Amino acid sequence: MAKSARPSARQSASGLDQNSVRGNGGELHQVAADETPVLTTALGTPVSDDQNTLRIGERGPSLIEDSHFREKIFHFDHERIPERVVHARGYGAHGYFETYQSLAKYTRADIFQRAGEKTPAFVRFSTVAGNKGSFDLARDVRGFAVKLYTKEGNWDLVGNNIPVFFIQDAIKFPDLIHAAKQEPDRAFPQAQTAHDNFWDFISLMPESMHMVMWIMSDRAIPRSFRFMQGFGVHTFRLVNAKDESTFVKFIWKPKLGMQSVVWNEAVKINGADPDFHRRDLWEAIQAGNFPEWELTVQLFDQAFADSFDFDILDATKIIPEEVLEPIPVGRLVLDRMPDNFFAETEQVAFMTQNVPPGIDFSNDPLLQGRNFSYLDTQLKRLGSPNFTHLPINAPKCPFAHFQQDGHMAMRNPAGRANYEPNSWGLGPREDPQRGFRSFADAEEGQKVRLRAESFADHYSQARQFFNSQTPPEQRHIAMALTFELSKVQAPAIRERMVSHLLNIDETLATTVADKLGIRDMPEPAEAAVPPRDDLPPSPALSIIQNGPDSFEGRKVGVMLSDGADVALFEELRSAIEAEGAVMEVVAPKVGGVEAADGTHIEARHMIDGGPSVLFDAVVLLLSEAGAELLVKEAAAKDFVSDAFAHCKFIGFTPGAEPLLIKAGVAPDADEGLTRLDSAASVSAFVQSCRKLRLWAREAAVKL
Ligand code: HDE
């Protein structure tokens, strides 16, 4: 009788991960390579056949008695949990936080007591609006959620890559998110705000105008998680051992400087590699290029808060760095990918209310609402109040309490006492000294539903943000607004948005109106408080002015053809690597090319699979014969014309000129094009790449 189709035990190409089994505590054990572990059911019964269900005869009906099959399918059917209602698409990594110096003067938080102290950390980056399977380069805010496993409990700093938010009061959050996500009757568009519902809501919420400037800026299309800032957004408090409070705002600054892509590029990256950001983080960490951020704090007291132009409880406002300098207090290094995406990145539960003693909240009504919301969402998503038992969520410090039972309880209190006080002398007791104490702020007032007058200025900082951008960045904002509003079908919504822009910057408003074809300019929106024009530009708000000073961590795409000059190729490789950047070869065939001297060079991508949008700079290292073949390939032509249009630096061998010309790029068009014919020219090219983009070209290419 045929015991059909039993594949050989080891068919994996790499053989990786074949040699581990899980122990009782979930820990992985390595087994010898020749010792294939026996497949078992979840309860440990060895399985004899995992290819065929139990049935009567070869062609007969299946039997319910097949408990192995039943268990396997049952478990598979329950693999999904609800995705996060916002921030569904995310990617996480492990690392550590290292404290620079003691902040005991300001806080008794254990994490800030000792210089050099290392605290384990887990970070999850995310987009907000897209569903779990959406693409990485949506125009969107990025979540920047950090879990710090301190010695006095977990601290979750659940922030974003943008320091302000759309709304001032948490009660508007469901409306905001409903409006941003896909429209309910048609279930599209997803992962984009370019639709009527979003702009309808926004145009009716003047308080969101500052945030609108940020999400229409290049901040919303980062090149990499590694090159973006993170912000705690709200004002928090630090509280010291004497119970004195200092207000604090948290800012993460990437060591490699900030960088974003351009919109036309983002659209193409989403098609070429929807996982662009996660792949980037994965590859950097696997290669040992550990991304790093510095944690800085803006510290201030009540007197500063009282004298500042805006309300420090209003999450639609920033305190410009030029007004209050951020002080570096430590660094975050990400050095390890999770063993398993679901177990860690998907099941990690961040909650703003997780703060250790020494860190406390302000009365920001958005923060207060968040502190209420996150516990609910974890119960819904993870399905049990015992989600803190999951290794990714459990504290790494000692803990002791009397919570017990519930779904999936993995740790119940041992012994007789499961309550306190008890006279058995068993179990933990509270500690008024070491325990978390809320800052004893004096609060008094009527019970009201009111927004403070000090929250009423919705345009001044939007204007300040716009004025702080370089001309290319201002152009990008205008183009983004035009794109988004061009997808809005109701003219009244487009015009309502333009009426708000008039309160921010008249040129911006007229540019957008003109590009949308609005003939009659609307009146400026009625402003609760007249917008100010005396706020000085803040250079810290510009990405271009805060880019890297090296090309470290970036990627060059080198297009090779048969007959390429191997010496030049090696020269290029060492110059790129010396810069701390990475090189990837793109060739007509993924199998690689044969260089002029017969050397075989492996490729990472075929040209169609490795468009120039995946790289920060490109090189065309082609022989004359190679270029002759490539001028006929649309993908090769697009590789060049896109790199040029996206203002990238392009190096090329003289043999590659016909391809440049075919792509409409004059070989001497501007200083962003470098002819590579010597070691000196290669080094000059790699150095020019440090500027990342030749923005001066943008006016000529008019994307
Ligand atoms: Fe969140 N937010 N949020 N949010 N948020 C969630 O919690 C919520 C807000 C942020 O990688 C949810 O676990 C309310 C601001 C990040 O797992 C949910 C309000 C900021 C993440 C929730 C806000 C954030 C979330 C959904 C208005 C920037 C992802 C799933 C008051 C400072 C964390 C979850 C991760 C996730 C509620 C506003 C950041 C529903 C009610 C402002 C980075 O609880």
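^ HDE complex. The CA atoms of residues 563 and 596 lie 4 Å apart. The pocket of HDE is lined by residues 84-87, 90, 124, 126, 143, 145, 158-160, 165, 170, 173, 233, 315, 350, 366, 369-370, 373-374, 377 (CB under 6 Å).
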